[in-house]
Amino acid sequence: MALTKQQIAQRIAQELKDGYYVNLGIGIPTLVANYIPEGMEVVLQSENGMLGMGPFPKKGTADPDLINAGKQTVTLLPGGVYFDSATSFAMIRGGHIDLTVLGAFEVSDTGDIASWKIPGKMVKGMGGAMDLVAAAKNIIVAMQHTSKDGQSKLLKQCTLPLTGVRCIKKIVSDLAVLEVTDEGFVLLERAPGVSVEDIKKATEGRLVIKGDVPEIKLS
What we know:
By secondary structure, this protein is an alpha/beta fold. It is built from four helices and 13 strands. It has helices at residues 5-13, 85-93, 129-135, 196-202, and strands at 21-24, 43-46, 50-53, 76-82, 99-102, 106-108, 113-114, 139-143, 154-155, 170-173, 176-181, 184-190, 207-208. A ten-stranded mixed β-sheet has the order 4-3-2-1-5-8-10-11-12-13, with helices on both faces. A three-stranded mixed β-sheet has the order 7-6-9, with no helix packed on it. Strand 2 (43-46) and strand 3 form a beta hairpin.
């Protein structure tokens, strides 16, 4: 069975390391905040000017003035701080973010990403994605493996306007965990009950299979 959005976020949380400064993009990535391993110190940054975000607030406790870059209400952990957008982007552009997790419309097998614009549809703004993919030390994409009509979103070449070029290191989709290498998408793990053949059919780009591929384990 394919992973749910929550399970994708839970698997990505396994990539976190103690002391990381992490930026979580809009959509599935924001859910990662709910699955940070107990006892691990991870500092979450939001490009609208916040450092030290916590999990989403419980029902009835939200502060409408406390929001992330996706305009969702969030919590702030003890020691958290607010600052202006210029300071936030100085932090991003200065290479002080250890890991960025963001969504994508498409990813190519060379690590290109298209995530900010679909031609013909209204765009409120490109946000901070271009700065993040240009400056973050490590980038993981959280995404659906295929579109609603079953077309692959892991391609030989992106068809939509690019956000960044040769910058993606790893992808966690609803079907698999893949590493982007010079050879293409290396299949590391597969969703429980999803076969390697299923993933091959859902992947247009180069897919590399090395031995037995284990199922994703969620704690």
